């Protein structure tokens, strides 16, 4: 019996010892890499052409480690962390421009409505190559953003490269950026709701907008256009709440990280602010992150028709991890998936109806066009001018659409969304009748 016990112990040692050895090798390799970092740190500290503080070197090293993981992970020093917290509350200082980094240049995701960037004509997809004549190439995204921020009423010159054009300069005056994340108005008998970003004010703003539209139109309300174009995203919980406002039940979004047990699913709690009325959601290449969560959820549940062009394709979740007095780190910790299981990372949301942005032109009604009634000898309609038999009532509804606002009339995608809602309302009325 004793011999058997000794044999079992020896066998156990042969199993455990290789594992200990692997762990020791991993630890030794980590120590070697840390010594390499220490050697480089000391060499830069001692021999770099200009004096650099230890604090700067450590911050640069951390920023480099995070920013090379993916475009959205980064280090936030105390000032940047403070700015980020202010921004999520709905107010911050700067130019009013959401950006990412691509090929070493700052790429515009979207300008924020009613900000210096939007008023100056900055467009999604623009590349910012220089700030006040200094090249951006070589800077991290946070460093470039820091340079774009500054005291209110100070100017900054941006050199922009836009597809199909020669590089050009724009001078923007920094301002306090107050984000009103939800705006609304009535277009004909359609409620138009624009969501510009997802911050802590978004869900309350959406509920207020819907209430005001209902109060104004009452039973004449045909449906809603939810405009998410050029919306760069924001808070995940707000995207979930906005989706939940229109979805009665089922999954809204799920997040999956490296550890399977950390996966999360977010489900609707019930209720529909739109009370079953049709919804059209507008998206484009500037619709990212939280915007794509909303569009994907409403599309998968067939609660809305998605119209416009393909969205940006940011399907990852960033977690803000505070680091005490040293700021925080923004780390990509998960991917999100729409209710049907789609990951839109680098793919985006494809609209149900593709509608490119275009300029609306009024056709020439005085042209040479001819109709049957204009032809010599054309037969008369046996039922008269309206084409109906006597005693046949016309279908209830509008024979001509009401005039749109000037803004909607010049917005081709919005005009098509309103036309679609008008058509759905007319079709539903005929089916009921």
Report on this structure:
This protein is α+β, with helices and mostly antiparallel strands and 433 residues long. The protein has ten helices and 19 strands. It is elongated, with a radius of gyration of 29 Å. The strands form four sheets. Strands 3, 4, 5, 6, 7 and 8 form a six-stranded antiparallel beta sheet that branches. A six-stranded mixed beta sheet has the order 10-11-12-15-16-19, sandwiched between helices. Strands 1, 13, 14, 17 and 18 form a five-stranded antiparallel beta sheet that branches. Among the domains are: 97-178, PDZ domain (Pdz3 Domain), CATH 2.30.42; 182-317 and 333-354, 2-enoyl-CoA Hydratase, Chain A, domain 1 (Alpha-Beta Complex), CATH 3.90.226. Belongs to the peptidase S41A family. Pfam families: CtpB_N-like, PDZ_6, Peptidase_S41. It comes from Pelagibius litoralis. This is S41 family peptidase.
